[in-house]
């Protein structure tokens, strides 16, 4: 996700704020641009978002994303690493914020090494709701459609329409 509005949308005599936010998913939209429109009606300016290539995507497109797999063996290894860690320096630190930062740094290092991020390619189709029965029905209907266009029989045309 990317924040598309990067200019103030509410401008007063001594202040300017960016109250309005539009977030764009780069995975689905190839390019965009935003313009601000001074409408003269109030101190609040309008935004004009132009999205390019919104409908230009392939149905069977392979999508790559990052995820973590957390098997039970890795959980056990993570627990063992955490138990065997010497937390004395974290617990005895006088500054609470620095102690927490030390804990968080150690914890995240163990977490990242135990459960690394992995690139996964999603090969599933966007039309998973189509069942085998629907596919058979669509093929049959298509063949009846072709037959109704190539024949003059009113019975076949009525059957297809029905």
Please give a structural write-up.
- With 162 residues, the chain is an alpha+beta fold.
- The protein has 3 domains: 2-52, no CATH class; 63-122, no CATH class; 132-161, no CATH class.
- 39% of the residues lie in helices and 21% in strands.
- It has helices spanning 72-84, 88-91, 96-114, 132-150, 154-161; strands at 2-3, 10-11, 16-17, 23-24, 31-37, 46-52, 63-68, 117-122.
- The strands form 4 sheets. The protein has a two-stranded antiparallel sheet with strand order 1-4.
- A hairpin with an 8-residue loop joins strand 5 and strand 6.
- Helix 1 packs antiparallel against helix 3 and helix 4 (132-150) packs antiparallel against helix 5 (154-161).
- The relative contact order is 0.10.
- The mean pLDDT is 78.
What's the gist of this structure?
The chain has 162 residues and is α+β, with helices and mostly antiparallel strands.
Query: Which series of helices and strands comes N to C?
Result: EEEEEEEHHHEHH
- Subunit arrangement of the protein: single chain
β-strand number: 8
Overall mean confidence score, pLDDT: 78
Q: Uncertain runs with pLDDT below 50, 5 residues or more?
A: none
What is the 3D form? flat
Report Rg: 29 Å
Main traits of this protein?
two-stranded antiparallel sheet
């Amino acid at each position: 996700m990317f924040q598309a509005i990067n200019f103030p949308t509410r401008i007063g005599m001594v202040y300017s704020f960016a109250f309005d936010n539009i977030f764009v998913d780069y995975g689905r939209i190839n390019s965009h641009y935003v313009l601000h429109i001074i409408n003269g009606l109030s101190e609040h300016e309008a935004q004009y978002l132009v999205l390019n290539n919104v409908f230009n995507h392939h149905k069977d497109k392979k999508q790559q994303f990052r995820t973590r797999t957390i098997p039970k063996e890795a959980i056990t290894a993570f627990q063992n690493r955490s138990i065997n860690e010497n937390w004395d320096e974290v617990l005895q630190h006088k500054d609470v914020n620095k102690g927490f930062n030390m804990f968080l740094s150690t914890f995240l290092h163990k977490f990242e090494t135990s459960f690394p991020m992995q690139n996964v390619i999603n090969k599933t189709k966007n039309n998973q709701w189509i069942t085998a029965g629907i596919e058979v029905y669509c093929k049959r209907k298509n063949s009846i459609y072709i037959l109704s266009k190539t024949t003059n029989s009113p019975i076949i045309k009525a059957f297809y329409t029905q």
